[in-house]
Design brief:
The structure is a single chain. By secondary structure, the protein is an alpha/beta fold. It folds into 2 domains: about 120 residues, Alpha/Beta hydrolase fold, catalytic domain (Rossmann fold), CATH 3.40.50; about 60 residues, no CATH class. It is built from 11 helices and 4 strands, in the order H-E-H-H-E-H-H-H-H-H-E-H-E-H-H. A 4-stranded parallel sheet has the order 1-2-3-4, sandwiched between helices. Helix 1 packs across helix 2. The longest helix has 16 residues. The relative contact order is 0.16.
Amino acid sequence: KPESESYELEELTQFLDETLSKIIGDEEIILVGHSMGGFISLIYATNPKLAKRLKGLILMATAPKLNNPGLVQYVEDLKSGAMSLKDRETIETIFVGLCFQRKARKEQTELIKEFVDRTLENYEYVGLRTMESIVNNFDVEDKLKSINVPTLILTGDKDLFILPSEAESMNNLIPNSTLSVFTPKIGHMIQYEASEQYTAAVENFLKNI
């Protein structure tokens, strides 16, 4: 994590670039981002200086700005204290419900338990700091047309966290993009809920870059 722990998306994007430079120098990359990682990937891809090293982009269950009224209310409830992610029951009933569809909740119990445990460990980061930053400061929709690398956009047909319509909008605005909508009844955690569809889509995309 960045030393300041401000959790502002712009700072996290710069931290990502600095980390990549330390590890692989100036090599080209294919950037993959899920949910908030997708927000960071979009900031990266729409920054002319950073985007020079991009060879491709994979955006999973993400959006160029936060248009979901339910998530805005979620942040307000956290700020007011009406809801707390320090409480296991709240995470299991509300947060898990936003992120996983019913079938995954029934069949992937160990994954759900780990998800809840990790959220409890990082409740301040997950619950308020990053979400407040996203609600208040994140909007790259007007910059999407500047993305000029092959882009794969993935979404679940029943994602309650980031609505599938956001993926469709990005597909219309990013010039060289392809959209895959995973079905049936696939939620926010597409890499777990539709692992075979996800793997096939990514492998096919990588073969053609």
